[in-house]
Amino acid sequence: MNNETPEAALRSRIADLEQQLKSADEGVSRLASRCLALEKEVESYRAAHPQREMHTDSPTLLQPLLYYDAGFGFSERDTLIAPDYVCDELTGAVTATFELPVAAQALRFDPGELPCCITELLFSDDRILCVPSNGLKLQGDATLFLGDDPNYRLEGLTHYPAGMKLVVSYGYFPLEMLADEPLFRAVLEGVQYFQKNENREQQHLQQLEQNAAAQQQTIAALQKGIAELHQTNAELQAHCQAYENSLQGVLSSSSWRLTSPFRRLLGWFHRGQK
């Protein structure tokens, strides 16, 4: 049977609450110390890995552009901005429509101004081929752009009439948020290294192909010279044969036999004069 008076029970309850409050204060203090330590760690990491200014929030730098060459080359003046540009932030799917104000002889497509990965790039005119100017083709239908100003040359057509509408769709995945991560930078350096090696190999292969083409031209010229020599030789042989036939005809003729005594007398006469 509990003989504790109400006053004593109240004091005991107050003591328990004070102890719990003290424990809570100690927990809050420890939590605050931990937060301060984490904040210092974050500041130290930021100091060791300075971040460049991010531009992915700028709509202008993510805006797809279409450059058209109307006979004066590509320029900022001859650039189209898609009025109905749509981008799904969750999936990265982009759709844009361009309409040429004048006839053009060449086109260039810029999916944005920042390093990015582009996937499943398609134009409404299936005759158009998209060739990355400064990107690395990956497996599948994807292109990796490691630097600023990614762009494609549009090939397949030599004339684009005024009023022509082009709808383009693709997946856009900006890489700038990862640009300062050590692992990502290491991967990019490896990709750039292999890209440079691939470019050197392509240049070497092109040089070999040019050398082979030059050798083929030399061989063709020599073969032509040999054929001409054979033709000349055949013509000379034909002339010799005709001369021999003519000479044989003269020697076997009756007039040659009848004039034989006169030729002998003429020979004696010439020898006598000597």
Strand order of the largest sheet: 3-4-11-6-9-8
State the end-to-end CA separation.
Answer: 179 Å
- Can you count the beta strands? 11
Biggest β-sheet: count, sense, barrel? 6 strands, antiparallel
Q: Runs with pLDDT <50, length 5+?
A: none
Which series of helices and strands comes N to C? Answer: HHEEEEEEEEEEEHHH
| Proportion of beta-strand residues | 15-25%
The coarse silhouette is elongated
Total of helices = 5
What's this model, at a glance?
It contains five helices and eleven strands; from the N terminus they run H-H-E-E-E-E-E-E-E-E-E-E-E-H-H-H. It has 274 residues and is α+β, with helices and mostly antiparallel strands. The strands form two sheets. A six-stranded antiparallel beta sheet has the order 3-4-11-6-9-8, with no helix packed on it. Strands 2-1-5-10-7 form a five-stranded antiparallel beta sheet, with no helix packed on it.
Describe the structure.
Among the domains are: 59-179, no CATH class; 181-250. Strand 8 (136-138) and strand 9 form a beta hairpin. The model has no long low-confidence stretch (mean pLDDT 80). The strands form two sheets. It has a six-stranded antiparallel beta sheet, with no helix packed on it. It has a five-stranded antiparallel beta sheet with strand order 2-1-5-10-7, with no helix packed on it. It contains five helices and eleven strands; from the N terminus they run ααβββββββββββααα. The chain is α+β, with helices and mostly antiparallel strands and 274 residues long.
